[in-house]
Amino acid sequence: MLTCLTKEALPIIRYRTGAVTSLELGPCRCGRTLVRMARIRGRTDDMVVIKGVNVYPSQLEAALLTLDDLAPHYQLVVDRTQAFPTLEVHVEPTERVVHEWGGFDSGRPEVLALGARVADRIRGHLGLNPEIAIVPPKTIPRSEGKAVRVVTRPE
């Protein structure tokens, strides 16, 4: 919830944005000492809770984009059919990597090794150990507008 005290024409008082952020109290690099809003970490409507950990797609994206062998398309599949929700992360290798492999086969050692690297990266960033599904390129749905990053299996 935000309140802007400097707007005169359109004051924003207790404005609920859905953005997850915090206040930075220390001085800015430029020397200003006023309290500032930190970078937005995610949105409350995109957040999922897995094993007590708040997971934002933007956090996962930051972890995945550090791997050069992955395309920038991913999807989180939250399964709520069990007592505790589970998370499965679907990622695509780049077409360059699939070409180097000589084609896509989910049982190839290279695919399994990439899945292990993805799992290690997510574990390091979020402290979770989700199931990883390496899917063929262009399998994850694309959209013209906002990408659908979280898919929930029915409760």
Question: What is the secondary structure topology, with strand pairs?
Answer:
Layout: E1 2-4, E2 12-15, E3 19-20, E4 23-24, E5 36-37, E6 42-43, E7 48-50, E8 53-55, H1 57-64, E9 70-79, E10 86-93, H2 95-101, H3 109-126, E11 131-134, E12 150-153
Parallel strand pairs: 9-12, 10-11
Antiparallel strand pairs: 1-2, 3-6, 4-5, 7-8, 9-10
Helix pairs in contact: 1-3
Strand content: 25-35%
Radius of gyration: 19 Å
What's the end-to-end separation, in Å? 29 Å
Query: How would you name the CATH homologous superfamily of the largest domain?
Result: ANL, C-terminal domain
Strand order of the largest sheet: 11-10-9-12
According to DSSP, the number of beta strands is 12
List key phrases describing it.
GMP Synthetase, Chain A, domain 3, single chain, 4-stranded mixed sheet, two-stranded antiparallel ribbon, alpha+beta, 155 residues, 2 domains, elongated
Notes on the structure:
With 155 residues, the chain is α+β, with helices and mostly antiparallel strands. The protein is built from three helices and twelve strands; from the N terminus they run ββββββββαββααββ. The chain has helices spanning 57-64, 95-101, 109-126; strands spanning 2-4, 12-15, 19-20, 23-24, 36-37, 42-43, 48-50, 53-55, 70-79, 86-93, 131-134, 150-153. The protein has a four-stranded mixed beta sheet. Strands 1-2 form a two-stranded antiparallel sheet. A two-stranded antiparallel sheet has the order 3-6. The radius of gyration is 19 Å and the shape is elongated. The mean pLDDT is 85.
